[in-house]
Amino acid sequence: MKKIITLFVFLISLSLFAQDKIYQHKILPSNILSGFPYASFIDHPDLNGNPNAKIVVKATQLGTQVVNNHPIDLFYNGAKWIIENADGADLVINSGFNVFIGGNSTILVKHSTNPANTNGIITQIDDPNFNNNNPGPFAIITSTTTDANRINVPYAFDYGEAQGFRWIYTENGTTFPFDVDFNIVIPGSSTSFTHISNNANMEVNQTRLDHPLLNGNPDATFVFEHYYGIGGASTNVDFPHFLSSRYDNARGQWTIYTTDGSFFVENVAFDVVIAPREVLGTEDNQFNTEVTLYPNPAKDFVTIKANSVINKISVFSILGQEVLTADNIATDFKLNVSNWETGTYFAKVQTEKGLQTIKLIKN
Length: 363
Hints:
Elements (H helix, E strand, L loop, with lengths): L1 H16 L3 E6 L5 E2 L2 E7 L12 E6 L11 E5 L4 E5 L10 E6 L5 E6 L5 E2 L2 E4 L14 E4 L11 E5 L6 E5 L10 E6 L4 E6 L5 E2 L2 E3 L13 E7 L14 E6 L4 E6 L10 E6 L2 E2 L12 E4 L6 E17 L4 E15 L6 E9 L2 E9 L1
Parallel strand pairs: 1-22, 12-18
Antiparallel strand pairs: 1-7, 2-3, 3-6, 4-7, 5-6, 8-14, 9-10, 10-13, 11-14, 12-13, 15-21, 16-17, 17-20, 18-21, 19-20, 23-24, 24-25, 24-26, 26-27
C-alpha cells in the first residue's frame, strides 16, 4: 500500500510539473553573484541543472515601488539560471521579476541573429510555429546573450516585414549585432489574451489590464510582450521604453507601465500570458496554507477548504470563461466537476484574509 501511495503522489507531482508556472524572483543581497552586482542567480528546482529550461523573465513590482529600470537578459552558468542587467548597471535590491517556467506543452524556440536572418533593426524568426501564421501563437521573448553582443534596448515582435514570417525588432532603431541569442516561449497550459492600450484604460505612464483572472487579484502572475501590428495597421506603434507590471490597488487591476515614467500612448498591443504563481515551501507567503483544494487532479468532486470564512468562489476555464460562482460558503465547499470538460481551470477563492487563485485540473 505504501508503494501505491508513493507512486500516486509521484504521478500527481509529474502532472503538476507538466503545467506552466510563474515563480517570482526578488533581488536580494543573498542572491547577487559575488563580485558581479549586475547579476542574480535564480534558485528553483525546475531550473537548477537544466540548461534547456523553457524560461523567460519579465520585470514586476513585488508590493513596493522598487523597480529595476534597466534592460535584462538571462544566461545559464552551468548550474543555475542568472538574471543580469544587460547594460552592466547594478541590479536594484528588492526589485522583482516574474520567471515563466514552461510545462510539457510549452514550446521553446531558440533564435540567434546572423547575417542570413538579420538586417538592420529586424531579425527574422524562421520557425514552423510562426511561419505563415498571422498573428500566430502568443509568445514571449527574453534575450539570453551574455557576451559583447548583448542587446540593451527595448525590442518587440513584428509580423510582415517579409510575408509569412515573425520578426523581432529594436524599437528605438538600434541595429542588431550578430550572435544575439533569444529564448522565445509559446505557452502551453497558460491563459493568453491580447491587450491594446486606449484612452479608457490609460493613466499617465500605465495601461490597465482587464481579465477575470487578474481583476481583484493582487497575487496573480503574468508575463507580457509588445507585438507591433497584432491588431492591424492601427497597432503599428513603436514604444521604445522598458516596461514592468504592478497592481493598482485603487482600481483592483493589474497594469503595464513604463519604468522611466514616460507617458503611455494609444494602440500599443501586447501578448499577455497568465500562469499560476508557484511558491516554494521555503518562502514566506501569507496565503500558502490558507486555501487548499483536493483532490487535484479531480474526476468527480473537489473540496475547497480554507482556514477562515470563504466569502466567494469563482471558477474560470483556461480561456477566462466563468463556469461557476458561489458565495457565503463558510469554510469549505464541495464542487461537482463530473460533467466538466477535461482540462485546466482556475478557482479564485476570496476569504476574510484575502484572495487566492488555485489551479484545478479536471481529468
